């Protein structure tokens, strides 16, 4: 695969990770030009099977769930529960730049792959560690997924629910993807620093911190008495909310320049000029009558279908969007014209749709899409490049250290 001209061309990443958050970081780094070598146990990353929960096929010749998090990587199988397996990783780190992991700290300590040991034996390495809750505190050793550390403890789930109702079922991988993107940025910064100092660095991002950062405005507002969740009938201002249209579709308005836009909204959008110069016409006044004005607007928006409201708001220059389903995102021309999605034909012959990672470069070439690797597909190739000869490879294979 050609990495020529990409920002991280020549960078080698050893990925010792599973599930989503750290592997998607590896995929981002691969898209940026790094050579990413994924280490799996003999039974494989759990992502090779869990996709069946969301209707994905999970076969060797068609595994979209694994594909979307692991495209562009090489793959080797090593038993890291053995001393020989750990030593192979250290041999790979000699000519690598980044060690990427989301393995729990206790397991890293046990295997000898913790930061302290890696720093001692490979001081040039950028050690990128995706954590659940952080390095300190009572929850630091708790198992973590985005459902728990991001959505639940991070305040995301309770803030997104409609007040007085039950929490929504979380979207799989949302927090993981944000955390992985943050870690990729941290790795890039640490690589830049290493050019100046010649020294490695440890970079950490936690799912919990990612949620607190994403919820930062609301967390800070809580200090001043603002409480989440809220009702869509009682938003911060009466036009910063969702409305149900006559065809049962919903529309979101972002009415952040309230006083400036209100006359045009009355004249051109809802055709209610009688509402101008009333208690609803300025933000300072309207915030005192939020719920009653929302109820008035619910009646107005129920008169027309969503597409007509979109046309009216578009003409008036007021920010809006209809609430899209995932099926609609799949067909959105904005995605396809910008290359946010692409079609991929699996070895099964079936076509799937794969997302592209969100950071794009204008001068660098568009990265070539390379399918996700098979389990252990590059073990012999990668270890041979590391100086492990055929006889040693056979011995490691017989001992089941490698696959």
Automatic annotation (TrEMBL):
Query: Can you provide one Gene Ontology molecular function annotated for this UniProt record?
Result: branched-chain 2-oxo acid dehydrogenase activity
Which InterPro entries does the UniProt record give? CoA-transferase_III, CoA-Trfase_fam_III, CoA-Trfase_III_dom3_sf, CoA-Trfase_III_dom_1_sf
From the broadest rank down, the organism's phylogenetic lineage runs: Bacteria, Bacillati, Bacillota, Clostridia, Peptostreptococcales
Q: What is its EC number?
A: 1.2.4.4
SUPFAM superfamilies registered for this protein in UniProt: CoA-transferase family III (CaiB/BaiF)
Name the PANTHER family for this protein: E-CINNAMOYL-COA:R-PHENYLLACTATE COA TRANSFERASE LARGE SUBUNIT, SUCCINYL-COA--D-CITRAMALATE COA-TRANSFERASE
The record's listing under Pfam families reads: CoA_transf_3 (PF02515)
Protein name (Swiss-Prot/TrEMBL) = 3-methyl-2-oxobutanoate dehydrogenase (2-methylpropanoyl-transferring)
Organism source for this protein?
Peptostreptococcus anaerobius 653-L
Q: State the source organism's domain of life.
A: Bacteria
Keywords carried by this UniProt record: Oxidoreductase
């Amino acid at each position: 695969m050609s990495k020529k001209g990409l920002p991280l061309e020549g960078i080698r990443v050893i990925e010792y990770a599973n599930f989503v958050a750290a592997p998607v970081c590896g995929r981002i780094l691969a898209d940026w030009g790094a050579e990413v070598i994924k280490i799996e146990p003999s039974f494989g990353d759990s992502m090779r099977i869990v996709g069946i929960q969301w209707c994905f096929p999970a076969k060797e010749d068609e595994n979209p769930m694994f594909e979307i998090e692991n495209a562009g990587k090489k793959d080797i199988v090593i038993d890291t529960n053995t001393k020989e397996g750990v030593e192979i990783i250290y041999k790979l780190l000699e000519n690598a730049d980044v060690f990427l992991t989301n393995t729990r700290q206790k397991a890293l300590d046990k295997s000898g792959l913790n930061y302290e040991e890696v720093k001692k034996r490979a001081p040039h390495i950028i050690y990128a560690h995706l954590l659940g809750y952080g390095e300190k505190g009572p929850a630091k050793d708790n198992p973590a997924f985005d459902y728990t550390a991001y959505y639940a403890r991070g305040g995301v789930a309770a803030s997104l629910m409609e007040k007085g109702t039950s929490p929504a079922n979380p979207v799989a991988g949302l927090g993981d993807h944000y955390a992985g993107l943050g870690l990729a940025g941290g790795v890039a910064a640490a690589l830049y620093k290493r050019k100046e100092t010649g020294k490695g660095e440890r970079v950490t991002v936690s799912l919990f911190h990612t949620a607190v950062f994403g919820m930062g405005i609301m967390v800070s507002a809580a200090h001043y008495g603002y409480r989440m969740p809220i009702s869509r009938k009682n938003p911060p201002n009466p036009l910063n909310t969702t409305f149900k249209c006559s065809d049962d579709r919903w529309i979101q308005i972002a009415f952040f320049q309230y006083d400036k836009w209100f006359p045009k909204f009355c004249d051109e959008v809802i055709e209610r000029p009688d509402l101008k110069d009333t208690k609803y016409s300025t933000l300072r006044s309207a915030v005192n009558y939020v719920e009653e004005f929302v109820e008035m607007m619910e009646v107005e928006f129920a008169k027309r279908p969503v597409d007509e409201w979109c046309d009216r708001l578009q003409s008036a220059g007021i920010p809006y969007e209809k609430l899209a389903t995932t099926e609609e995102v799949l067909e959105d021309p904005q995605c396809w014209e910008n290359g946010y999605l692409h079609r991929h034909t699996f070895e099964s012959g079936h076509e799937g749709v794969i997302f592209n990672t969100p950071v794009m470069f204008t001068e660098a070439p568009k990265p070539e899409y390379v399918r996700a690797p098979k389990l252990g597909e590059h073990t012999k190739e990668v270890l041979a490049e590391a100086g492990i000869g055929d006889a040693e490879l056979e011995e490691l294979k017989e001992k089941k250290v490698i696959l």
